[in-house]
Design brief:
Chain lengths: 269, 314
Amino acid sequence: MRAALALGAALTGVALTAALVSLVWVPHDVTRMAIADRLQGPSAAHWLGTDHFGRDIAAMLMTGAQTSLAVALVAVGIGMSAGVPMGLAAAARGGWLDEVIMRGNDLIFAFPALVIAILITAVFGPSALNAILAIGIFNIPVFARLTRGAALALWTLDYVRTAELAGKGRARISVEHILPNLAGLLVVQGTIQFSLGILAEAGLSYVGLGAQPPTPSWGRMLAEAQTMVALAPHVALMPGLAIVATVLGLNLLGDGLRDALDPRRSPDA
Amino acid sequence: MIRYLTRRLVALVASLGAASLVVFAVIEVIPGDPAAYMLGLNAAPDTLAALRDSMGLNQPLPLRYLGWVGGMATGDFGDSWTYKVPVSDLVADRLTVSLPLAGLALALSTAIALPVGLIAAARRGRATDGAIMAATQLGIAVPNFWFAMLLVSAFALHWRLFPAGGFPGWADPVAGLRALILPAVALALPQAAILARVLRTALIETMAQDYIRTARAKGLSHTQALTRHGLRNALIPVLTILGMQFSFLLAGTIIIENVFSLPGLGRLIFQAITQRDLIVVESVVMILVCAVILVTFLTDLAYATADPRLRRRG
C-alpha cells in the first residue's frame, strides 16, 4: 500500500509541477496558431504533437493543468470554508440550528454540480468562474455532513466534556479541540473532492460550461479533438490521459493518506 | 411505519418547494427582466411586450411563482419561446431517448458490478482481488465522455459495429437500441467501478459478522455463506450508493448525449442555453432536481424497509 501512496504522490506531483512550470515557461506559445504545422505527430519540436490549429499539445496540456487544478482547488476551498463551519456549528449547537443547517445542505445536495453550472450559465453566460462556483457549491454539503458526523462523535469524548465543565464556550471548544482532531479527515476528503473536481471541471468545460477560449483546458481540448478522432488520435488521447493520470494520482494519494492517518483501518478493507 | 412515512412525505414536499424557490429565484429574479435577457439588446419593443405578456411578467412575483408551480403540478410547464410548443411536449419527446439510456446504463453497471465485487470479496487479498481493485481504481479516474470517444473510434469508426452518433428513433427498436449501446457502456463502466468497490467493502464487512460464522459453523462453504447470507446484507449499502450515484448518472447522461449527438434532455437544455430560452431551462432544471429529490426519498424508504431500526430516526 505504501507503493500506491508513492505512485499517487508522484502522479499528483507531475500535474502540480506542470501547472506551476507553465506559469513561467511553456515549450510553445499556446495562443499562436500555425496552420501549416497542424495535426503533427510527436516530434523533437513538438513532444506530444500539434492540434488542428498547429498549437503545441504539450504546452496546452501544461496550461490546461493550471486551469484544472486551480478550478478544483478553489472549489475545495469554497466547500471547506463554508461546509466545515456549518458542520461544526450544527454539531455544537444541535436543536433547531442543526436542523436548519442540515436541511439546507440536503437542499444543496439535490442540485448536481452540472445543474448548478447550467443555472448559472443560463443567466450569466459561460465562464471558468461558473465551474468553480458550481463545483464549490456542490462540495459544501459533502464537508458539512462529514464535519458534523465526526464532530458529534468527538463531543461525547471525556476531554471535550471536561473542557465544557471547565467553562469553555461551545464555539471555542469547536475551534480549539474539535477542529484539530478533524484535520486528517478533512485532508483525506479534500483530496477526494479535489479529484472529483478535476473530473467535473473536465466535463463542464467539455460541454462548454467551463473555461472559455482561448484559455486552454483539458475538457475543451477533448471537445475540439472529438471531430478529428479518426484523423489524429493523439490529439484526443493526450488530454484524456492527463485527466486519468491526475485523478488516479489524487485518488491513490487520498486512499494512502487515509490508511496512513488511521492505522486501525485495515488497508485492504 | 405510517408515522415515518408521513414525516418523510412532509419533508419531501418541503424540499420540492424549497428547490423550486431556488430555481425560480435564479432564473426569474436575478436577471431582472428575463424577457429582455432572452431577446437580447436589439429586441423590437412589441416583441418584448409580447414575450413579457406570455411569460406573465406583468404580474407580481409571488403570483408568478405560484402560477409556475401550480402549472407544473398540473403538467403545464409553459411554452418554449424558441420552439413555440409546450415544454411538456418537448420534454416528453426527449425523455424517450434519455430515460432508456440512463436505464440501460444503470442496468449494465449493476450487472457488471455485482459479479466483479463478489469475486473481489471472495478472493480478498489474492491476485484476482488486486487486479480487480487496480482496474476499478483506473475506472473511477476515466472521464466517461473521453471513454465514449475511445469507444466511438474503436467500435464505430474502426470496426463499424455501432453508429458513431445520432438516433434513428424507436420505429425500428433494434436500430434504436444499437444507437444507445455505446453511450450506455461509456456511462456504465465508470459507475460499475465505484459500485464494485462499495460492494466489495460491504461484503468484507458483512463476512466478519457473527451470523456468517454461524452459517460456516453449520456447514456452509465460504462461497455459500457469501452468496446466501452475505450478499443480501451487503446490498443495503450498495442500494444507498446507487441512490447517491443517481445524480452522477443524470449529469453523465446529459454530457454523454453531447458526445453522441443524441436528441435527449441534455441536448435540449444546451440548445436552450445558447438560445437563451429561459422557460425551457427553468423547467428542465426543475425536472432534473425533482428527479434527484425523488430518488433520494425512495432510497431512504427502501433503506427503512430493509432496516426497521432506521425508521425511528429522521
